[in-house]
TrEMBL record:
This is ATPase components of various ABC-type transport systems, contain duplicated ATPase. It is a peripheral membrane protein. PROSITE patterns: ABC_TRANSPORTER_1, ABC_TRANSPORTER_2. Keywords: ATP-binding, Cell membrane, Membrane, Nucleotide-binding, Translocase, Transmembrane, Transmembrane helix, Transport. The lineage of its organism: Bacteria, Bacillati, Bacillota, Clostridia, Eubacteriales. It comes from [Eubacterium] siraeum 70/3.
Length: 842
């Protein structure tokens, strides 16, 4: 029975003129076990995401028909999928989200935990788990929801060899025992091809093969496709000496290799010589470390000596403490006892989550002056305009490594550097590490990729039970290991000596060496040195930096002095007459703060996605500008005075705000994501007002509202302003002022969305912030005071209220500019990115 019917599917990401998928047509039946394979960036993750749910943004053509109710998805980014603190909370979260009862949730959690064998992890903190454990928890939490199909994106990338085999066995059980359709996108095909019924290969966003594993190997061999390097060791070995054979697992490959050796002479590769330096670069002595509230230390009395100019690979099971050891060496964690001695220079650390290294909006900004050279070496040129977070797993790894290499570190600590990478890239990266080693760099790798460690490392160390149990050269390490070893070593064991890599396996057969191209000079010249800066330019930048620091320091001291002077702790007082003097003096340090924090970069850099002003925008403007003030005035004049009067007016204003919301957004069909973003921004404004409660008129609320309107549009800006004032007054006190504050603050965001819908820059946004708070918010609130607190309303009274309110409004306006300068650029970029990536408010 057909589950998926994909017809002529094409898709391109927002802002990209290159299709990630092109004319994909597939049919997948219920109960199938399908592998999606292809090089990094071929479209595997994109296709899985579209099979899970329609794209939020971007351009999609073609059709995807799904014959089920719910698709379970396990992403390649494990931390992004975990949302709860405890493992059992994570298992229950999905079941609760789909509306199961408490008894049903309890039953699902218990059965799932038993099926996956994770009873011992149920009460563990999710953030204390290893990457491999998190992947298993993600799979279990999805299965607890009883999906119709299981979609997995690089599920083996963070699993050790033993756990990987167990994970594949779980998938086979899920497929056979539960009859569930399983679709896996993966680079590590060794254990999957032998159990999958079907293999679909993508190349540059197109389906180039669809069939069983045997036909896939034949297709790759006939076309000499680079994907042949992804195939199991037996397939690659047979292809080097004869027609390719579907030797998809170790037993079949070992039988063929033994038989071949009986009829031909096998050649034992020469053992690698010991060329390591005697000088230590990293010395670890009696190291111990344990996480808070853990029953025992994860690192216990560990000692390790890493030589200068060497490549050391640390392997071990999931949760053994490999990533923890790297964090201790680089100093992000502090050991309980023991000593770590570093005899090198700068340390570069690649964490398991490579996104931690990115802080810019595009790859070009990340690499700055070295961008063209670096991306060419790592084959990332076509991704220069993309946001680092929008890349596939393999592309993120490449970009993070490229940034680390360009940094020019002397010691590289790499945590799972080949995670989600294809075989050709691994070979390129191995060549890069060897070149860096030749340049005197010291490299430490934590990896579950046994083949990569065997090809690249000088020393392999096994971390077990909190300490290094064995540390040997690869030839001895993999020859002596039965479990933590390569498929090549298993195939050649007791048949041919000194074979532990695919290259060695092929060489022992006298086969043709696989050709990855000339990589020797691919990374030449990438040292990470910054380009020289002319002396005059350097002096100018230094003077500007000192000037800003002086302004920032004087402004901070002056602002603190003015605030403390009002408390009476000083033996003197600032004159209270004229009344505006204190506020004028307070504005001086605030202006200094503005000069000190003003950024050089322009806020026009983030992509602008706002559309033209629509009729719904005009209707919303009429409603908010006419109906709400009219309601407040009528309520003030005609509703009898009483304890509930202001609440009735607030209710009426809220109804009108909701009416404006529905009128402006009904045709746009706002999604849950739209509402969630509005709620978060409103909460941030409320928190900011509460945080600065001790400073009268010095609040970040208006800045957040203005940025919200600028990034997300007029209606979004109005709603953030109105809701933030309503909710924050639950803390500060409701009253007749609440509807006026909602209206005035909403207009700040509304007009910001209209004025900056096409173009913006820092100066224009600051000028708008100053004038809008001073004129719009201040003017409306001053008039509201007249209407609320006086009965004799005339021009003289209104003028008096406005003039007396100017000092307060000026402080509010200047403080808003300060907050826009401090937080505006970052918040604006984040909001714009959310709008582009998820298609918000379109």
């Amino acid at each position: 029975m057909e589950l998926y019917n994909i017809s002529n599917l094409s898709y391109s990401y927002p802002g990209s003129d290159r299709n990630a998928l092109s004319d994909i047509s597939l049919k997948i039946n219920k109960g199938e076990f399908v592998i999606l394979c292809g090089s990094s960036g071929s479209g595997k993750s994109t296709l899985l995401n579209l099979m899970k749910a329609p794209a939020d943004a971007g351009t999609q053509k073609g059709k995807i028909s799904f014959g089920g109710h719910f698709a379970g998805f396990v992403t390649q980014f494990t931390d992004e999928q975990i949302v709860c603190d405890k493992v059992w909370h994570e298992l229950a979260f999905g079941a609760e989200s789909i509306g199961l009862s408490q008894n049903e949730i309890r039953s699902q959690v218990s059965q799932t935990a038993l099926f996956f064998g994770i009873e011992d992890l149920l009460y563990c903190d999710c953030d204390k788990l290893s990457g491999g454990q998190k992947q298993i928890i993600n799979l279990a939490s999805v299965m607890a929801m009883n999906p119709d199909v299981l979609l997995l994106d690089e599920p083996l990338s963070q699993l050790d060899p033993i756990a990987s085999t167990q994970f594949i066995s779980l998938l086979v059980r899920i497929n056979k025992e539960l009859g569930m359709t399983v679709i896996v996108a993966e680079h590590q095909l060794g254990g999957l091809l032998s159990v999958a019924k079907r293999a679909v290969m993508l190349d540059n966003g197109k389906v180039c093969h669809d069939g069983d594993a045997s036909s896939l190997t034949e297709h790759l061999s006939e076309n000499n496709h680079p994907m042949l390097f992804e195939m199991p060791a037996g397939v690659r070995a047979s292809a080097s000496v004869s027609n390719v054979l579907p030797l998809l697992d170790v037993p079949s490959a070992k039988n063929w290799y033994t038989s071949y050796g009986e009829n031909h002479r096998l050649i034992s590769p020469a053992a690698a010589g010991d060329t390591l330096s005697e000088e230590s670069c990293i010395s670890v002595k009696n190291l111990s470390f344990g996480y808070k509230n853990s029953k025992r230390d994860i690192i216990r009395n560990l000692s390790l000596d890493i030589k200068q100019g060497s490549i050391t690979a640390i392997v071990g099971g999931n949760g053994a403490g490999k990533s923890t050891l790297l964090s201790l060496i680089c100093g992000t964690l502090k050991q309980n006892s023991g000593k770590i001695t570093i005899n090198g220079g700068k340390i570069g650390f690649l964490p398991q989550d490579p996104t931690l290294l990115f802080n810019k909006e595009t790859l070009r900004e990340e690499f700055a002056d070295n961008a063209d050279e670096i991306v060419a070496a790592f084959n990332l040129t076509h991704l220069l305009s993309r946001h680092p977070f929008d890349l596939s797993g393999g592309e993120r790894q490449k970009a993070a490594l490229a940034k680390l290499v360009s940094y020019g570190a002397d010691i590289l600590l790499l945590d799972e550097p080949t995670k989600a990478a294809d075989a050709v890239y691994k070979q390129m990266f191995s060549a890069l590490l060897k070149q860096l080693k030749a340049d005197g760099k010291t490299i430490v790798i934590v990896s579950h990729d046994m083949d990569f460690c065997a090809e690249t490392a000088d020393i392999c160390a096994l971390l077990f039970d909190g300490e290094i149990s064995v540390s040997l050269p690869p030839s001895q390490f993999f020859a002596d290991s039965s479990f933590f070893t390569t498929d090549s070593a298993k195939i050649a064991k007791n048949v041919c000596d000194n074979v532990y890599t695919v290259a060695g396996l092929i060489a022992s057969l006298g086969g043709r060496a696989e050709n990855y191209g000339d990589l020797s000079g691919r990374f030449h010249g990438i040292k990470g040195d910054k380009p020289d800066i002319a002396v005059p330019q350097r002096k100018k930048r230094k003077k500007l930096s000192v000037f800003r620091k002086v302004m920032l320091s004087l402004g901070s001291v002056g602002f603190a002095f003015m605030l403390l002077a009002g408390t009476g702790i000083f033996p003197f007082e600032i004159p209270s007459e004229p009344f505006w003097l204190q506020y004028a003096l307070l504005c001086v340090p605030m202006i200094m703060l503005i000069i000190g924090v003003a950024p050089k970069n322009s806020m026009a850099k983030p992509p602008v996605t706002a559309k033209k002003v629509t009729p719904s925008d005009i209707v919303a403007g009429i409603i908010t500008a006419v109906l709400i003030p009219f309601t407040v005035i009528l309520g003030t004049l005609f509703i009898p005075n009483g304890t509930r009067k202001h609440l009735l007016i607030i209710l009426a204003v809220l109804v009108e705000c909701l009416a404006a919301f529905f009128i402006s957004f009904e045709k746009k069909k706002p999604s849950a994501k739209d509402i969630a973003v509005l709620a978060v921004l409103s909460a941030a404004a409320v928190a900011g007002r509460e945080l600065f409660f001790m400073f009268p008129q010095f609040k970040p609320v208006a800045a957040i509202v203005i940025i919200s309107g600028t990034a997300l549009g007029a209606q979004a800006g109005f709603l953030v302003g109105a809701v933030s004032m309503l909710v924050s007054n639950m803390l500060f006190g409701q009253g007749m002022w609440t509807p006026w504050q909602m209206f005035a603050m909403g207009l700040l965001g509304f007009f910001a969305g209209i004025i900056f819908s096409k173009k913006r820059n820092t100066l224009a946004l600051c000028i708008y912030s100053l004038l809008s708070v001073l004129v719009i918010y201040g003017g409306i609130m001053n008039i509201s005071s007249v209407l609320t607190y006086t009965t004799d309303i005339n021009l003289q009274t209104i003028t008096a209220y406005i003039i007396s309110g100017i000092p307060f409004d000026l402080i509010h306006a200047v403080s808003t500019v300060i907050f826009v300068l401090i937080t505006g650029d970052a918040l604006l970029k984040k909001c714009c990115r959310l709008r582009v990536k998820f298609g918000l408010f379109q």
